[in-house]
Amino acid sequence: MSTFPHPYRAFTAFLGASFGAGPPPRRQFLPAEFRETLLAGAGERLPLHAASILEWALAERVHDAEYLRRWQAGEVSRAEERALGFAWSPAVVERGLASSGATLAATQDALALGLGINLGGGTHHAYRAHAEGFSFLNDVAISAQWLLDEGRATRIAIIDLDVHQGNGTASIFAAESRVFTVSVHGANNYPFQKEVGGLDVALPDGTDDAAYLAALQDPVFSALHAFAPDFVFYLAGADVLEGDQLGRLALTPAGVRERDNRVCHWAALRGLPLALVMAGGYNKSPQTLIAARLGTLEAALEAAGLRV
Ligand SMILES: [Zn+2]
Predict the structure, then answer these.
(1) Measured in angstroms, how far is the CA atom of residue 170 from the centroid of ligand 1?
(2) What distance in angstroms lies between residue 93's CA and the mean position of ligand 1's atoms?
(3) Most CB contacts within 10 A, which of 4, 26, 124, 179?
(4) Residue 260 C-alpha to ligand 1 middle, in angstroms?
(5) Is the peptide bond before 273 cis (omega within 30 degrees of 0)?
(6) Interatomic CA distance for residues 230 and 109, integer angstroms
(7) How far is CA 269 from CA 27, 80, 107, 182, in A?
(8) Burial 49-65 (b: 16+ CB within 10 A, else e)
(9) What is the rounded CA–CA span in Å between residue 226 and residue 146?
């Protein structure tokens, strides 16, 4: 899939086995022909690898066993399908496992190399026992729990800059003092009933680059500094961009690049392992979305290059 030489050959971007493909198509999602463009662009920057699918046993450390059993068996109600945003199919389950496997691979890469990347992932609306918002398994929560269980991290920051609040993640870790969930999101975006996370910053419609970056500096970085994590997850949602079909903020591509630079440098300069997942992005312009995704990759690679 990849063409060498890569400028950052030390790193890998992982894909779920069914990256961006398969059912269910949504009109807001990147059309298939543009997915190929995105993959080609990513492949010019670093090697791409399909990750192993997640073992159910790891999902069970975060999710309710009966919930997982029902979804595996297709015993899912219409109301649950509506909450997810898709009709149930085996592909929905497979894709959840594949994407979560890619986030786990990125997490393991971050431990080994300082940076790990999943070109998908970020299904942060999945709760312990219910699915919603295109999220069946909470990939980042599963990987964070794995880090804790394996003793590979003791203070984990989840920096969720997708335009939608990471409600599932906040709920899953509400009573877990070793995980600090940060969410910067649109006040008027889904989910309309928000959870209380470690730090929630709700921004008004139309928030621009300057206001967004100011919020990132304080309170976000000041709170992260105080928490002093030893591992960082970054959900680099591109749905903060102006023109997003499911977002209400108005960042420019340059603003998103600056956001990514600041987060990735913050982690790199402190020597913190960073696992990056792409999270949401539904721009009316596929070209704008692809450029933002590639910019996120470049920001992460440049920052990680400081320490390789
Ligand atoms: Zn989102």
Answers:
(1) 15
(2) 20
(3) 124
(4) 16
(5) no
(6) 15
(7) 40, 43, 18, 19
(8) ebbebbeeebbeebbee
(9) 24
- The pLDDT tens digits of the residues spanning 29-55 come to 888 888 899 999 999 999 999 999 999
Contacts of residue 226, defined as CB under 8 A and 6 or more positions apart, other chains included, come to none
Q: Which residues surround ligand 1, an ion (CB under 5 A)?
A: 162, 164, 237, 239, 280
Q: What is the pLDDT of residues 149-172, one digit of tens each?
A: 999 999 999 999 999 999 999 999
Catalytic positions are: 125
Which CATH number applies to 13-305? 3.40.800.20
CA of 39 to the centre of ligand 1 (A): 20
Say how far residue 26 (Cα) sits from the centre of its chain. 19
For the chain, which ranges sit under pLDDT 50?
1-4, 23
Distance from residue 164's CA to the centre of ligand 1 (Å) = 4
